[in-house]
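Support request, please re-run this one:
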Amino acid sequence: MTDQPVPETKDRDAQSAPEDAAVRIETLTSAHVGEAVELHMHAFPDFFLTFLGRSFLRQMYLAYADDPGTIALVANAGAGDQVIGAVVGPLEPASFFRRTLLRRWWRFGLAAVGAVVRHPGIVPRMLRAVRYRGDAPEDGAQRALLASIAVGPASQGLGVGKHLTQAFLEQARSAGAPGVYLTTDADDNDAVNTFYRRRGWVLEGSFATPENRRMHRYTWDFSTATD
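Re-run finished. Output below.
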């Protein structure tokens, strides 16, 4: 599950940055989840999932780490292998979100109780989240979804976002996906949109969420994209 009803694709390292050999990419496991949650909290202070709290985020990252139909990666740096970035997403979004809901609904529900008690007005948004299936392009191609990418504010300038995005694309291609898509804010988000356009992502379309948040949807199709 992501920051519903749209994924969080806000990379705070979205500006072009030099390669850094100290950045290492590896599979996200349950051992990384605590650090990934803290990273998410700092990278997305004003987003819906952050509002729902650490327990909810923990369930989200565990769902990605435990499901074989996902790509879940972290970027490490330093001698202590500190997690400085994370990217997650499903290979088949609609089936993943449906499967996750069936398997983990009670865990997500318990994790969200505190936020709902404090702010009952979020219930309609929570119900929309339950029905979320990925906001996929309408052309029917079974692309993977890059659902969330987060880079710690202190790690800007290391090219972490670039490393994570490229690793996600490589794993999606290896898994047989015809391409990848993502959504990100259309407004007040110039650095992120410029990052994706410069790296070859195609602006497929735009849409508005029920909260009137304008979103851009980008695609990367392996049959036409150039690395």
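Residues 8-221 form a domain with the Aminopeptidase fold (CATH 3.40.630.30). The beta strands are 8-9, 24-27, 70-77, 82-90, 144-145, 148-151, 179-185, 202-208, 214-221.
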